Amino acid sequence: MKVLVTGATGYVGGRLVPRLLDEGHQVRTTTHDPSKDGPWFSDRVETVEMDIQDADQVGAAVEGVDAVYYLIHGMGGGDDFAQKDREAAQHVAQALTKHGTSRVIYLSGIVPPVDESELSEHISSRLEVEEILSSTPATAITLRAAVLMGSGSTSFEIIRQVSERMPLQTVPDWMNSDVQPIAVVDAVEALVGALTADVGTRSYDIGGPERLPYADLLDRYATVAGLERPQVEVPLLPTDLVGFLAGSLTDVPTPTVEALVESLHHDMVCGEEDFRRDLLPEGHELVGLDESFRRSLGDPRETSAVDPA
User: Fold this and answer.
1) Which of 3, 97, 215, 248 is 20 to 30 A (C-alpha) from 20?
2) What is the average pLDDT value for the chain, to the nearest integer?
3) How far apart are CA 295 and CA 220, in angstroms?
């Protein structure tokens, strides 16, 4: 198949493209600046210039492909991030419809089963993007992940850097919601499987084999990393303050950290696990949490890079 991967230089996209090439697919990627050096696989893919906010460039990038991977998320700050995400999704949706593209695959975040009025702005925006893409004639498959585990991922870098830089971890009393992390290798495998899965438009929750409170996730990381990090529960800490302090402690942009912290008021776990049956190869075993930490700590790539995808 001929596949367009948006966000191919991001954390997930940079791992997805080689897997697609290994499967024998033709891959087209996009760039904002053609003068910049591309990733190591650049000579194996077609690269086109595309600004996601430019409808004409999006249409040209989508033309002639069988499927599109949508790996773009507006995790920055500002009051207009939701509008930018909406317009970007609309540009892709229009291009899918115009060119008769058969499939679009969107990597999103877990949507907790609560009233939409209780969702954070970023989760609401991702849900809106999913709805826009799902409104097209293309088969739209959304993979909703909570926490991606792997060296260089935003979620992992927050855990790693907070653990390394806070000898004593002050944990808000409301940070007891469960999360269900998934190793990036398993997420990529599910993305590859979504390209040929015999299913209609739908979303999949994707997560690893364990679910646990976020405070316990920090504790598990410290144990695997060989760190002594006592935890103290602190009542009544405002969400905004926790997000700001965590952002100040890490190299991750503060608005991104604040958005992720805000989501921890709800359980970020799988409501169903159909992806194991529909998207993963038969016999595939999910990577356990401790093993995903060990792999992340031992991976020399991107140890200081973070990417909102």
Assistant:
1) 97
2) 89
3) 14
